[in-house]
Automatic annotation (TrEMBL):
The keyword Transferase applies. This is Alpha-1,4-N-acetylglucosaminyltransferase. Keywords: Glycosyltransferase, Golgi apparatus, Membrane, Signal, Transferase. InterPro entries: A1-4-GlycosylTfrase_dom (IPR007652), Glycosyltransf_32 (IPR051981), GlycoTrfase_DXD_sugar-bd_CS (IPR007577), Nucleotide-diphossugar_trans (IPR029044). Residues 197-322 form the Alpha 1,4-glycosyltransferase domain. PROSITE patterns: PROKAR_LIPOPROTEIN. The keyword Signal applies. Residues 1-26 form the signal peptide. It is found in: Golgi apparatus membrane. Pfam families: Gb3_synth (PF04572), Gly_transf_sug (PF04488). It is a single-pass type II membrane protein. GO terms for biological process: epithelial cell proliferation; negative regulation of epithelial cell proliferation; protein O-linked glycosylation. GO terms for molecular function: acetylglucosaminyltransferase activity.
Amino acid sequence: MLKELQLFLSLVLLIACGFLYRLTQRSPCLFCLPPFKSPRGPEDLLSDGRSIVFIETSERLEPPPLVSCAVESAAKIYPNLPIAFFMKGLSNASQLAPDPSHPAFSLLSALHNVFFFPLDMKRLFEDTPLFSWYTKVNSSTERYWLHVSSDACRLAIIWKFGGIYLDTDVISIRPIPQENFLAAQASRHSSNGVFGFLPHHPFLWGCMENFVEHYNSHIWGNQGPHLMTRMLRVWCRLGDFQDLGDLKCLNMSFLHPKRFYPIPYPEWRRYYEVWDTEPSFNDSYALHLWNYMNQGKRTVVRGSNTLVENLYRKHCPRTYRNLIQSPEESATREPGPGTR
Ligand SMILES: *[C@@H]1O[C@H](CO)[C@@H](O)[C@H](O)[C@H]1NC(C)=O
Ligand SMILES: *[C@@H]1O[C@H](CO)[C@@H](O)[C@H](O)[C@H]1NC(C)=O
Ligand SMILES: *[C@@H]1O[C@H](CO)[C@@H](O)[C@H](O)[C@H]1NC(C)=O
Ligand SMILES: *[C@@H]1O[C@H](CO)[C@@H](O)[C@H](O)[C@H]1NC(C)=O
């Protein structure tokens, strides 16, 4: 009798455990943050051609605060689109384990529409004009490899999947309404820090061909903004911008510098200053913070009331809450790794 009761109780316990296990599997997991929320690959997730794409070509896995802010702000502005972050460092399966020393990586992984993918360049460049270049180039002798490889990856990803590419120092503040567009840095000068196209757009195919034909690794930007500008001149006869209007050419838009560069690069320090009256940026979709100029020298400090602090507070509140320190804290803690 006692034995039967024991057996019965063990059975009940087993069932209860099984039930509890399934429950925890379904509930949002507090202590583990799987970097891949979905078993689907990028082909599947990005197939509807309307994703937002970020790229990290260094081996770095933990995003600095500005990168975290860029991704979080995009996730906030485009809640119904997948935000795909392609990271070179994720090609290493051994680095996939969740790690509490990666607060920004964990913060972004927890956002419902942010997805991380390994950046496998060889596979990405297959079936594109870039493949021949990639198989010949020796990355260890390239002076600007991180930039040049990033320039190539963004062309191939947006050509293959479509969507909007954003640099990791761009804070999104409202949705970009155009589907095929380039962003002007100035009249007749395109950037390649922000652009968007439907999948398989011939303009990007032309860019990839031009990339290979006119490859010059010694000139900074030759495969980046200069390439976009060269191609734009081949495709379109553009005049200067008049007032605040965007320009149209075939089925592409060339967006006014105010849309992404309301503060031009010689004035990048303005982002790190306190303003009497802050600009409303209501003619802008996103703000490029010129991190290449900054090189991580100026940071966001809690309580400083700088323009950039207020932008973080509004557009990437989680990053602001979790990653931005007050002066007292940053004096006692190690500063974060510099951004590139
Ligand atoms: C994995 O990471 C290590 C250390 O960062 C690096 O030396 C190695 O090349 C990486 N392996 C791959 C396949 O990327
Ligand atoms: C790339 O360049 C480095 C440095 O010059 C050299 O040691 C290496 O052998 C080269 N690799 C290939 C595959 O040519
Ligand atoms: C417009 O864009 C589509 C891609 O969506 C492309 O196939 C087509 O050729 C473009 N039209 C022109 C006139 O460039
Ligand atoms: C632009 O910003 C100003 C000042 O904040 C505001 O008064 C105005 O209504 C805004 N315009 C638009 C179109 O949002």
